[in-house]
Design brief:
Oligomer: heterodimer
Order of helices and strands of chain A: EEEHEEEEHHE
Number of helices of chain B: 3
Distance between the termini of chain A: 41 Å
Largest interface: A-B, 39 and 48 residues
Largest sheet of chain B: 14 strands, parallel
Helix content of chain A: 10-25%
Structural class of chain B: mainly beta
Structural class of chain A: alpha+beta
Number of strands of chain A: 8
Helix content of chain B: under 10%
Shape of chain B: globular
Number of helices of chain A: 3
Strand order of the largest sheet of chain A: 2-1-3
Radius of gyration of chain A: 19 Å
Shape of chain A: elongated
Chain lengths: ~160, ~725
């Protein structure tokens, strides 16, 4: 069984929202007492924490670092750099505000909760359900939706 | 003066870790427990009692702890009452960061108005050594220079009963945090708040898959010390990227780069005024090992050792002074011709200095002007300071010995290091060691302790003994042993490693091991525990024994891990070449395993009379057994999986070369199954002949072919009966 620890009313504060995923554990890890009273913990029988983490990692968009530098003139100044992310359409956009937690379960439905808690359900189907219940947060911030035209002509590079 | 609040983190989770069933009394912030604690207990660990809770702020002894409330105050006095539980507060650093400001803890993320220093105390998972695998972002706290966040591993002594910190080399049995951050703006530990300090952690950036980020990313100044940062990369990633407007400091750290790539980065610092002191960096994975970013010379590097990398010091530095490197960068440079003559065994991760090392006395004193005075493992630095994370300690030196004894304390050590020994005994303590390291020994004994070791390291031994302890070891490493015994303990090991040993008993424990590894053994027994193991590859891991009469292991070449035994009579394992994992045994009369070449995993046994397994070359998986009279399994070359058996009289399995899977049995009188020559998965093929005898009837049937899943409860629906 996988346990997903999420921000709830007791732990929400500046920089995070209810439903944000804080950690994922296997069922042999007890999450009890006052330390976890402020969190919402989802128990998903039959799923492994490693599989859930893998599914979560796949849900996150590609990010990179981009540089604003002239290719023809020398300068004594360090080139400006910024973080960018690739949206569903494949466009590099300005990552103006990186969320503290990359994924949230805030939009999970009751039907999805029931499906995920059903240990008789096929593991692959439940991972698909989890995938549909997860929401990545970068695209939720309108400041992150501005495409950078120059980057979408050429590939960004890493230092 | 700001108050200190402490919350512990362990990937083990928040399960109860108390030893025995202690009572607690509290007077003026000092808690006294009626039973000595031997587990991973120390600063930040929560003690619950009488619907109240407090947090350990200091370890005075295994029974005495200073405690504070969740907001750092002094808890109310408490007369003796039962301890409900002792547990860690969080299972991940990420959850601790998110949860500490909530209503059950500081109640605010503003540490200035709360007037507290927030201490996150990181403990390793004593159960199965699971790493903390969740990357953490520290932000939205309000801090200043005196009210900040400290993330650290307790070092034993006043901080914890067992040390949680690495000993200078990467250790999978100490707290470590491992993740794969996505970009250079991201980190395994990402710090966006000011004045955060990180000390004594092991941080791995696994950049072989998706990540190109950092072990530590800081957006506004950080103090990073006594930590091991590991970049494991195929061609990207950083140890640090420290940006923002506040200068950062790194000292006494070890940076290692490994993997198939050569494009990784080491310590990158971008803020003017940043410093890096007494660090050691090694690995071909680093194209740039220490990087001063920008053209204005932001970074000062002093007393650092950098070798085996692409470019040792890259960029424009404010200063590079008294550093050792392949390139001989900076002023007062040291350029060893042979690095193997510098470090003890750098190829295997030991970067401590050898006698005669070119780095000894080659640095400058106190480059941080009081920022630190020890090395990465707590050894005091002495003039002239050495280069690198380790200070060479001259053989034979000893520090911080405090002895209280009515008869005497005798140390006859030669060429050894003995430090932080606290000895309080009635009769005496005698240590006749040679060439060993005895570190942080805390002993209270009424009769005596004699340690006659040779070329061994005995570290952090906490001993409370009424009669005596005798250790006659050779070439062994005994670490984190906590011993509480009224009669005696004898350790006669050779070339063995005994780690995290916690023993509490009345009569005696005898270990006669050779070339073995015994890790994290906690035993409470009134009569005796005997391990007579021989041969290599013997791993005794996480054994927790609570026994009235005895446990005896006469094994060879075994791996046994996660054994929890509670029995009033006896548990005996007479096995050879077997693997027993996560066995839970509770019996009033006895449990005996006489196996050969078997794998028994996740055995849960509860029996009033006895369970006997005389198996050979079989695998027993997920066996849950509950019987009042007895269960006998005489199998050979079979696989028995997921047994769930409840019977009041008896069950016998006389099988050979059989496969029995998902068998759930419940009977009041008895079940007898005589199988033979059944191969493969039971619901796809095979032949099973079973005779089931119940109280009022007997049913015999043979399954010649089956196409559905094996369901013993519903044979008529899933099998064709002949």
């Amino acid at each position: 069984m996988a346990k997903i620890v999420c921000i709830d009313t007791g732990t929400v504060r500046t920089g995070c929202e209810i439903g944000d995923i804080v950690a994922v554990h296997d069922d042999d890890v007890l999450l009890d007492g006052s330390g976890y009273s402020g969190f919402k913990i989802y128990d998903f029988p039959g799923l492994k924490a490693a599989d859930v983490r893998s599914k979560m990692a796949a849900k996150l968009p590609e990010t990179s670092k981009a540089y604003k530098a002239s290719s023809i003139e020398w300068s004594l100044f360090t080139p400006e750099e910024k973080e960018v992310w690739k949206d569903d359409a494949g466009n590099w956009c300005d990552l103006a505000s990186r969320p503290k937690y990359g994924l949230t379960l805030f939009a999970i439905t009751e039907a999805q909760k029931t499906s995920l808690a059903d240990s008789k359900s096929d593991e692959i189907n439940r991972l698909l359900t989890l995938d549909s219940a997860l929401t990545e947060k970068i695209h939720l911030d309108s400041s992150n939706l501005i495409a950078i035209a120059a980057l979408n002509k050429t590939a960004a590079s890493e230092i | 003066m700001a108050l200190n609040v402490y919350y512990s983190i362990s990937p083990f989770g928040t399960g109860d870790i108390k030893t025995g069933s202690p009572n607690i009394s509290i007077t003026s912030g000092v808690a006294t427990l009626s039973v000595a604690q031997t587990g991973n207990i120390g600063q930040g660990v929560c003690i619950e009692y009488n619907s109240l809770k407090c947090y350990i702020s200091q370890v005075n002894s295994p029974t005495s702890f200073n405690v504070v409330t969740a907001i750092g105050g002094t808890p109310s006095d408490q007369s003796s009452t039962t301890v409900t539980s002792i547990h860690h507060e969080y299972a991940s650093l990420s959850a601790a960061e998110a949860g500490a400001p909530d209503a059950d803890h500081i109640t605010t993320a503003n540490l200035i108005t709360a007037d507290v220093v927030l201490n996150f105390c990181c403990y390793y998972d004593h159960d199965d050594q699971t790493a903390d695998t969740t990357a953490v972002t520290i932000n939205s706290y309000t801090t200043d220079e005196t009210r900040f966040i400290l993330v650290f591993t307790p070092t034993g002594g006043v901080q914890s009963i067992n040390s949680q910190r690495h000993s200078g080399a990467w250790s999978a049995s100490k707290y470590r945090i491992i993740a794969s951050p996505a970009t250079t703006f991201d980190g395994v530990i990402k710090v966006l708040d000011d004045y955060v300090r990180v000390s004594g952690l092991q941080i791995e950036n696994d950049a072989t898959t998706t990540g190109v980020g950092c072990c530590v990313y800081s957006g506004n100044g950080i103090i990073l010390s006594e930590s091991i940062l590991w970049l494991y990369t195929s061609n990207a990633g950083y140890l640090t990227d420290l940006v923002g407007s506040i200068a950062s400091s790194i000292y006494n750290c070890l940076g290692i780069g490994s993997g198939t790539g050569t494009g990784g980065r080491g310590f990158l610092l971008r803020v003017s005024g940043s410093v890096i002191y007494n660090c050691t960096v090694y690995g071909s994975a680093f194209a740039r090992a220490i990087w001063s970013y920008g053209t204005e010379g932001v970074l000062t590097a002093i007393n650092c050792a950098v070798f085996g990398t692409g470019d040792d010091f890259y960029g424009t530095f404010a200063s590079i002074d008294h550093c050792a490197s392949d390139d001989g960068d900076g002023t007062n440079a040291v350029t060893p011709a042979d690095w193997s003559a510098v470090f003890t065994d750098y190829a295997n991760g030991d970067f401590s200095l050898k006698s005669g090392s070119a780095l000894i006395g080659a640095g400058i004193d106190n480059p941080g002007s009081g920022l630190y005075s020890d090395d990465i493992i707590g050894n005091a630095r002495s003039s002239v300071w050495d280069i690198g994370a380790f200070e060479y300690v001259t053989a034979g030196s000893g520090t911080t010995i405090q002895a209280e004894a009515s008869d005497g304390v005798v140390f006859t050590d030669t060429s050894s290091r003995t430090k932080r020994i606290f000895a309080g005994c009635v009769d005496g303590i005698s240590m006749g060691d040679s060439g060993g390291n005895l570190a942080q020994l805390m002993s209270t004994a009424s009769d005596g302790i004699a340690l006659s070791d040779a070329v061994s390291r005995t570290a952090r031994i906490a001993t409370i003994v009424a009669d005596g302890i005798l250790s006659g070891d050779g070439c062994s490493v005994s670490k984190l042993a906590s011993v509480l015994s009224s009669d005696g303990i004898s350790l006669a090991d050779q070339a063995g490693v005994v780690a995290a040993l916690s023993v509490s008993m009345e009569d005696g424990i005898s270990f006669s091991d050779t070339s073995s590894v015994a890790a994290y053994l906690r035993s409470i027994a009134s009569d005796g525990i005997i391990f007579s193991d021989v041969l290599v590859g013997d791993l005794l891991g996480i054994i927790v024994g609570l026994v009235a009469d005895g446990i005896s292991f006469s094994d060879s070449t075994q791996v046994r891990a996660g054994l929890y035994a509670a029995a009033s009579d006896s548990v005996r394992f007479g096995d050879v070449v077997t693997t027993v994992l996560r066995a839970l045994a509770q019996a009033s009369d006895g449990i005996i395993f006489s196996d050969d070449a078997t794998w028994a995993m996740t055995i849960q046994a509860l029996a009033a009379d006895g369970i006997t397994l005389s198996d050979s070359a079989i695998r027993i998986l997920r066996k849950a057994v509950y019987a009042i009279d007895g269960i006998t399994l005489t199998d050979s070359n079979g696989v028995n999986a997921i047994f769930q058996v409840i019977a009041s009289d008896g069950i016998e399995f006389l099988s050979a070369v059989s496969v029995i899977a998902r068998l759930g049995v419940m009977a009041s009188d008895g079940i007898r199954i005589s199988d033979s020559t059944v191969a493969g998965s039971p619901w796809t093929r095979g032949k099973v002949t079973m005779t089931m005898t119940f109280k009022h009837s007997t049913l015999t049937f043979t399954i010649s072919k089956s196409t559905a899943e094996f369901e013993l409860k519903k044979p008529s629906t899933t099998f064709t009966l002949n």
